[in-house]
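WARN  no MSA supplied for this record, continuing single-sequence
INFO  ligand: flavin mononucleotide
INFO  echoing inputs
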Amino acid sequence: MNALICFYSRTGTTRTLAQEIHEMLLDHDVECSIEEIEDIKKRDGKIGYAKAAKDALLKKETDIEEVTYAPADFDIVLIGTPVWSGTTTPAIRTYLNKYKTDLNKVAFFCTHGGGGKAKTFKAMKEVCGIEPEGTLSVLEKDVKNVKHFEAVEKFVKSLEI
Ligand SMILES: Cc1cc2nc3c(=O)[nH]c(=O)nc-3n(C[C@H](O)[C@H](O)[C@H](O)COP(=O)(O)O)c2cc1C
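INFO  complex generated
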């Protein structure tokens, strides 16, 4: 069994979580690669934030950079996103839509400020049409205060990779 962790992160929280999941899978001797999805659209600053919120709310896709790894080469792809406007990000929406026919098994993870995780996972499932093997949602503040390791461990174990 091999795994790919694929994520988008605007301010680094989901990246931290993705890297921790990666390290944990490697510790479990899982063959595992990691890939950050890059949104070509500028998302920084106040205007970037406002446009990001609107694009997510309107379920918009975006242009993403070429990916390094072919998802079809992996038994499972763990896909991570921040919650934006109660749903997934345009970058992950684009990735899921573009590669949905190449995905074997999937699992989802997200970071958020307090709301929208269930709707986010529902949207991700709807876009790719695949029921996830597992999901993990972590509060942004718990990632920052390192209060989430137990949840990450439980998620990784539940996937039975
Ligand atoms: C445009 C935008 C919209 C957001 N909307 C929500 C939301 O609906 N619910 C929520 O709990 N957090 C929301 N957040 C907070 C992010 O989900 C949270 O800060 C996340 O951990 C950021 O991840 P990142 O650092 O990987 O970008 C939003 C953040 C942004 C930038």
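The first strand starts at residue 2 and ends at 7.
INFO  checksum written, moving to next record
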